[in-house]
Design brief:
The complex is a heterodimer of chains A (about 425) and B (about 325). Chain A is α/β, with parallel strands linked by helices and about 425 residues long. Chain A has helices at about 1-25, 35-60, 75-80, 110-125, 140-155, 170-180, 205-225, 245-265, 275-280, 300-315, 325-340, 360-365, 380-395, and strands at about 100-105, 130-135, 160, 185, 200-205, 230-235, 270, 290-295, 320-325, 340-345, 350-355, 375, 400-405, 405-410. The longest helix of chain A has 26 residues, at about 35-60. Helix content of chain B is about 70%, strand content about 0%. The chains are: A alpha/beta (about 425), B mainly alpha (about 325).
């Protein structure tokens, strides 16, 4: 009998010690693996940002003062590409009735329904066909890889790919390159794609989209930061630390926020998820005026995003939070259902919540003043241009990258004609 | 040591209770946010569907079977119910009824496949897991009405809200309902013919058949009950998830099944209690929602949950060996 008591006590002690031991190591982070990955991410994002600045001027889709930062990287790469993305498709005709497999990340959110609508429109205009395929959830990396491999085996004239995981598709892309199948990456860019595989990237400039969120958030909270007595906290919930678009968006937000805060003479540090902590640029260390806390859930579910958001929102010093995609933003909204701390007036003590993408939950939260606003991409245009780029590549031409922008929307402009079509339910 | 004390310590439910107390103590010490009322509220919010699924799946597990379709099934029913409300203006009450009926339907299918056709439970429910996941993916992401929208009254089943805005007081009425359900099902398991036969099937199916009991009927009914609770869980899930997303739900059943094992249901069937299940699920919920509060990164949360499960099942096995040795 005594053994039983000892066994019980031991197991309890084991659990307790594991918790304590792990709890201590969470914020102190020092891995080097992430930093090399971030190098690749930021260099490609720089190129994307550069070409986006040139396209912004000519693109007819109106923006609401997203202020693409011209000073960031108007360097050699922009001049070299020298193309404004969409003009190349004028008068494009399909040489034959191509059939393209289009691999989306999932059918999880209505985001992909909007993308398919764009594909459908383009396919009808060009007289080509497409088949949209996707795994059940954005975490099903292996399933999508299987779909990609079987698509390559059927030797189509081109494949559209929104990769769930950009590193796991590399081998498949090599096969595609050896079989001369052009790949158009849409929604998510593939930074280290093998030579000759990805002929064109149609994607949101995620760095810019993250920066837009940071700029609008900073406008709302800068007085709070300036007049704060002690440390204040800004939260960011990222669905994962593996997909390039989430990485770029998360870092775009963090780096812009660091820049804005430091410009006003305050210090800022980043804590939480190791990848983002290591990849953030220019952060201060030690006891800073502002802390940016980055949370990444164990799985990409609203429930776990909500738990992470709840943890941040429960802290007394939190003044703002950003959910960097639809799932994360819904997690923020859901966490607030018990806390009721989000609002639009920071001087009144409201925590400023900013979302990403759309969906009726986020739109509803913006309408009723729970969320301050959100950044939307243009899934419709991405699907649309992906089909155009594929047709052009199948014709034997060489399409240039098409960057699309992230647009800010809040309760004042969400019904504008240039914003509304992108706000899917 | 007195006999009573030794019996108490031998009871897995008591050990689980100790683990719960230990976990809560650690959280309270290390996280000042965890001590807030709102943290308790949100932890309870996310526990209801796990508890409901776990109560249901306890029955197949006691018969030495399993039901893997409850997680994807739950999401599938919530999606269909939500689509009915959103796109066909169906009253929320009807959608809730549809969820429950669908749950019973899939449960019946599982039961017939396993109890009558003789398919292995793992295989049969794996198939229905895929089927429900696929059917769910046919719908697009669907939000059920929020509290303020028409039809939002169903949130009050789980959480009463008094007042509005920041000063609103919220009471987690759901936990009281859960406790009532747990007591009712505990009674059903131990004091009704259905419950006793369920345990009999799990401990020795051949003997149960030979004693003239309609094993097929009761075996099927176990899966129907499990499906019924998956249907109820769908309503609880819809109440806490802003947008029910197609393709999700796989893996959620494992939280419930894990909880049942922590709660002391024998991995070989033939023994179990609903109160134990309730306590076991609470451990899983505490691990899932509590670990982020003490600043633990996501990967560690899963590692720890895995170790706790191993520990729980080991305790059960050791206990059983002792009991055999004593005889």
């Amino acid at each position: 009998m005594r053994k039983k008591v000892i066994a019980t006590l031991l197991s309890t002690a084991m659990v307790a010690s594991m918790l304590a031991a792990c709890g201590g190591s969470s914020s102190a982070s020092s891995t080097s693996a992430a930093s090399s990955a971030s190098g690749a991410a930021s260099s490609s994002s720089a190129a994307e940002a550069a070409s986006s600045t040139s396209s912004a001027s000519s693109e007819s889709v109106g923006t609401t003062a997203t202020s693409a930062p011209a000073e960031v990287v108007a360097s050699s790469s922009a001049a070299a590409s020298g193309d404004d993305g969409t003009a190349q498709f004028e008068g494009l005709k399909a040489n034959e009735a191509y059939a393209f497999p289009m691999l989306v990340k999932s059918f999880q959110s209505t985001y992909w329904d909007a993308a398919q609508e764009g594909m459908k429109k383009a396919a009808e205009e060009l007289g080509v066909t497409y088949t949209a395929q996707g795994p059940n959830s954005e975490s099903d990396i292996a399933d999508q890889l299987n779909m990609l491999n079987s698509a390559i085996n059927s030797s189509p004239k081109g494949i559209g790919l929104a990769a769930c995981d950009t590193s796991s598709v590399i081998d498949a892309l090599k096969t595609a390159a050896s079989k001369n199948i052009p790949i158009v990456a849409f929604d998510t860019g593939i930074a280290d794609a093998p030579e000759g595989s990805v002929v064109c990237t149609v994607a949101t400039d995620n760095t810019q989209a993250g920066e837009v969120a940071a700029e609008h958030m900073y406008d709302a909270i800068k007085d709070e930061i300036a007049n704060a007595d002690g440390q204040v906290r800004i939260g960011e919930v990222n669905q994962d630390a593996t997909a390039l678009n989430i990485q770029q968006r998360g870092l775009g937000f963090i780096n812009k926020m660091i820049e804005l805060i430091q410009k006003d003479g305050k210090t800022v540090s980043v804590e939480g998820n190791e990848f983002y902590v290591n990849a953030a640029e220019g952060a201060d260390t030690g006891d800073t005026d502002v802390v940016i806390e980055v949370a990444v859930p164990a799985q990409t579910t609203v429930e776990l995003c909500s738990t992470e958001a709840q943890t941040i929102l429960s802290k007394e010093d939190t003044i703002a939070i950003f959910g960097s995609n639809q799932t994360a933003a819904e997690g923020v909204v859901s966490a607030n259902s018990n806390l009721s701390v989000l609002g639009t007036d920071a001087s009144n003590g409201d925590v400023i919540g900013i979302g990403f993408d759309a969906g009726s939950t986020i739109k509803g939260a913006i309408e009723d003043g729970t969320l301050y606003g959100a950044v939307t991409q243009s899934p419709l245009m991405m699907g649309y241009y992906a089909i155009y780029a594929l047709t052009m590549a199948a014709n034997g031409d060489d399409p240039a990258d098409v960057p699309t922008e992230g647009y800010w929307y809040d309760s004042s402009n969400m019904n504008d004609s240039e914003i509304k079509p992108n706000l899917y339910d | 040591m007195t006999k009573k004390k030794s019996k108490l310590l031998g009871d897995q439910r008591f050990i689980v209770l100790l683990v719960i107390i230990a976990l809560i103590t650690v959280y309270v010490i290390f996280s000042k946010e965890f001590r807030k009322y709102s943290s308790i509220l949100s932890m309870l919010d996310f526990s209801y569907y796990d508890i409901l699924m776990a109560i249901g799946v306890t029955f197949p597990l006691i018969t030495a079977g399993v039901d893997l379709s409850i997680g994807t099934g739950m999401v599938c029913y919530a999606l269909i119910g939500g689509t009915l409300v959103r796109n066909y203006n169906c009253p929320v009450a009807v959608a809730m009824l549809v969820c429950i009926l669908l749950g019973c339907g899939i449960g019946l299918l599982n039961g017939v496949l396993i109890g009558i056709m003789g398919l292995p439970p793992f295989l049969a429910t794996l198939c229905t897991c895929m089927i429900t996941r696929g059917i769910g993916s046919r719908c697009s992401a669907t939000p059920w009405p929020t509290l303020k929208q028409p039809g939002g009254w169903f949130h009050s089943i789980f959480k009463l809200t008094f007042g509005s805005g920041r000063g609103a007081f919220k009471f987690p009425i759901g936990i009281i309902l859960m406790i009532i359900l747990v007591l009712v099902m505990e009674f059903v398991l131990n004091h009704t013919r259905f419950g006793r036969y369920t345990i009999a099937i799990g401990s020795n199916k051949e003997a149960t058949i030979l004693s003239g009991i309609n094993v097929k009927f009761y075996h099927v009914m176990d899966y129907v009950i499990c499906g019924l609770f998956a249907g109820l869980a769908a309503i609880a899930y819809a109440a806490v998830t802003p947008t029910v997303q197609p393709g999700t739900g796989a893996g959620l059943e494992l939280d419930a099944i894990g909880g049942v094992f922590v709660g002391g249901v024998a991995a070989t069937g033939g023994y179990g209690s609903i109160i134990g299940t309730f306590a076991g699920v609470f451990v899983i919920v505490l691990l899932k929602t509590g670990l982020p509060y003490i600043g633990l990164q996501a990967n560690w949360q899963q590692i720890i949950t895995g170790f706790v499960l191993i520990g729980a099942v080991l305790i059960d096995i050791i206990k059983r060996k002792r009991a055999v040795a004593k005889q």
